[in-house]
Amino acid sequence: MTAPAPIAAPSASCTVALADEAATAALAARLAPTLAPGLVVWLVGGLGAGKTTLVRGLLSALGHTGAVRSPTFTLLEPYNLPRFPVYHFDFYRFSSPDEWRDAGFDEYFRGDGACLVEWPELAGPALPAPDLQIALDFAAQAGPDGERGGARIARLEAHGDAGQRCLSAAAAAS
């Protein structure tokens, strides 16, 4: 896998334990009011870590009532919400940073909506830096049957003032 694009050190961070999907939705509900046009959120974590689940919770808290699909194959799912659009990206299938440049996605990062980006490390250094990075991981190792429980850990890192507002809302959830 490609190394993550270099970004500035976070101005602050916090860790939130997520016992299950309901806890992930509660975190999303706390973060949703802090989203705004121009905000860039990177969602980092392995397969099944809960990135799309968190996006589903954010969109629901922002008033979206329809289905939320992972954009693994489409790369982008736009949501025209009452307050502003939200653009959900998934770069899992990128094999080269050239794909980011060739796709023309940079126009979505110019301020009319919030951008939620799964697998940002695969887009390379041209991808705009995050205001907030959320790293999701499993809270425990797999059990003897190979199954992992629903518990997750979310580590949030603020990069600048907009990210700090998000972080403050998330810290209130922990």
Would you give an account of this structure?
The protein has 174 residues and is α/β, with parallel strands linked by helices. Helices cover 24% and strands 24% of the residues. It is built from four helices and seven strands, in the order E-H-E-H-E-E-H-E-E-E-H. It has helices at residues 21-31, 51-61, 98-103, 161-173, and strands at residues 12-18, 40-44, 76-80, 85-90, 114-118, 132-138, 152-158. A seven-stranded mixed sheet has the order 1-7-6-2-5-4-3, covered by helices on one side. Helix 1 (21-31) packs across helix 2 (51-61) and helix 1 (21-31) packs across helix 4 (161-173). The chain is globular, with a radius of gyration of 15 Å.
First and last CA, distance = 32 Å
Tally of DSSP β-strands: 7
Order of helices and strands: EHEHEEHEEEH
Stretches where pLDDT is under 50 for at least 5 consecutive residues are 1-6, 142-146
Number of helices: 4
Largest sheet: 7 strands, mixed
Report the β-strand fraction as a percent range.
15-25%
- Principal-axes shape call: globular
How are the strands of the largest sheet arranged? 1-7-6-2-5-4-3
Helix/strand structural class: alpha/beta
Average pLDDT, to the nearest integer? Answer: 85
Helix content: 10-25%
What is the radius of gyration computed over CA atoms, rounded to a whole number of angstroms?
Answer: 15 Å
Sequence-ordered SSE layout with sheet pairings:
Blueprint: E1 12-18, H1 21-31, E2 40-44, H2 51-61, E3 76-80, E4 85-90, H3 98-103, E5 114-118, E6 132-138, E7 152-158, H4 161-173
Parallel strand pairs: 2-5, 2-6, 4-5
Antiparallel strand pairs: 1-7, 3-4, 6-7
